[in-house]
Amino acid sequence: MKLRPSLALLFALAVTGAGAYAQSAADLDTTAPRKFSTLPLKPTTTQAQAAQLSARFLTRFHYDAKPLDDAMSQKIYKAYLESLDGEKVFFTQADLAKFAPLKTQMDDAIWNQDLSGPFSMFNLYVTRAVERMNYARGLLKQGFDFNTNESYNYDRKKVDWPKDQAELDTLWRQRTMNDWLRLKLAGKADDEIRKTLDKRYAGYIDRVKQLDGEDAFQSFMNAYAESTDPHTDYLGPRAAENFDISMKLSLEGIGAVLQARDEYTAIREIVPAGPAAKSGKVHVGDRIVAIGEGTSGPMTDVIGWRLDDVVKHIRGKKDTTVRLEILPADAGVDGKHELISLVRQKVSIEEQAAKKKVIEIKDAGVTRKIGVIDLPSFYSDFGARREGDKDFKSATRDVAKLLGELKAEGVEGVVMDLRNNGGGSLAEANELTGLFIDQGPVVQVRDARGEVQVQGDDDPGMSWSGPMAVLVNRGSASASEIFAAAIQDYGRGLIIGQPTFGKGTVQNLVDLDRFTRNNSEKPQFGELKMTIQEFFRINGGSTQLKGVTPDIQFPKNGDEKDFGESTYDNALPWTQIAPADYKPVADLKAYLGQLTTKHDARTAKSPAWKLMLDELAQYRKMRDKTTISLNFAQRETERKDLDAIQADFRARHKAIDGNTDTDDADTLDDGLNANERSLKSELKQEKDAKKAADPQLDETAHILFDAVGLIKSDAKLAAEVLPYGGKFSNISATTAAATPEKPQPQVPAAH
Fold first, then answer.
1. Which of 12, 435, 513, 676 could make an S-S bridge to 463, C-beta 3.0–4.6 Å?
2. Does one domain contain both 412 and 531?
3. What would the pLDDT profile of 415-439 be if each residue is shown by its tens digit?
4. What GO MF annotations does this protein's record show (predicted)?
5. What is the CATH number of the domain that holds 529?
């Protein structure tokens, strides 16, 4: 199942759908095991009513409302089947033949309030999952021969379901054999391997047996909701409660968004300024193999676990330690595991705030300062704003302040770094764009009725009127795309990096209990997160699906195959409307050729850029691999080759970064107490982070350096690109006087 991205950071951190935020939940009992359920699971009257009520909303009020008919039924069936057995390891084609009549009956099940069909599929899934794990446990008693030339296809998304029981048995023998071989390559003895895997499979059986009717209903309703569009979800009462708790906890935890990927739980996003980000050791794509509580507690193997069960184990109280055994993203399935200790903390808005730095570039005898503002999200303290606090925290206010400081430091250009900025407040995106333009529209929003609202900047003046660039990547979504698109449409600055995510829709939460006669204080019907609007650029094109295409593109990393709006089969199509009434300030296309030529010549000689390209190539190679040998000697050779590649990468990084300190956080001087060791580790991580090369940011700054040179040498371009006569706003008092400062943003409407 592909991961749904977030409109706002908090949406991305919700414990819902395919993404889950590992955080503290003091008011939830996350340690008490759920009881085993009794099969067959049966739907309740309330669930049947909730399904019908959801259908009424989705068929009438969704932005792209579609009828719930036989055509939609087939989409629901496909999505539901993939949610139950997306890896095609439980059902056979004979099972699917039994399900076949349900393909066109899912709509009837909802309208007629008869969910027996969908529940029968879920019940068979539970039965088959227990059968398969018991079969795997039986295989462990005899062991395996690893001198054969067999291979295992571990990526089964594009293959068909096994045709019969015999083919399913072969698949599970290879699957179990691969699990054994991984541990054998890690140096484990046969008895230890047998014990570890038996415990893993037994634990999986226990968790499957704990699935209840709410799990079945949640899975089915998610299949319906996601069949309308990728960002619409159904949240049952339990999921809605977790969502509400996550919204109230002020981002306490390790600061990571998780997703299910094959049999692993993988890191989907890292929250800026959280424990995971500060450690410098957790990266997007890393896979969690095991979890341990405290500094010395036993490690619990979590391969094959449900996502919410992994989240429960990572959750914990503030200031407590959790240890993660990680299989790095850039390592193969047999790669070396890393043990990382993290202290759960509250991630405050202040820690996530925009930050600045200055990059000084010397080239051809010319020295220029380029300012960089790193903006992790379009954040706003909604609570303080509602309470009338005049000093409420906001991205726009923070960036305006940083721009003033960069002016004082004499920078000649500013880079807005929006890489992996998943969005946030629409009001903040609108206000922040206003810091770089005088006045005018920023974004157009169309609702389900087709009505278009233009939102923009009404305050005259700018906080920065000099040259600028916006650095984006595939993780730049929603509000980030609105900002980048507006800057591009106005010709106000260069957009540099990778094509953005392409999320151009707005969601709203609908509390279904409000529309029923539920007099109970406890929610029973759940909530819908439903798409209600779409964003459009001021030039009339949507940011939906296509995202924003940079003026100067950097190499893609390969994630675009399974990450981004275009990877969803049912993503809303790209459309366009009439452009807003705006006037571009410049057209930079004529100068992109010169900038690109300089960029290509420079990166061809850059060791850091070459290293980045080599790492990207290796990452793509590992991601594209779908089969693996079950021969021990061959796997051992492959692992040694990969270790050599990774060692070469590390050596090249050290040479580029000038980092020769080999001390590791997990092997620090045992003479230090825990607090001293933690402080030393944090200081080392900050020191290494400052040394670490960021070739994409450095190259973006250099491209802007080149652009400043072109502007200074071309009076006509300067007059077009730079407002108020083409002068640099930080050069002289006269220019500053001619460039009115953008007033501090007032309290915007909540989004």
1. 435
2. yes
3. 999 998 988 889 999 999 999 999 9
4. endopeptidase activity; serine-type peptidase activity
5. 3.90.226.10
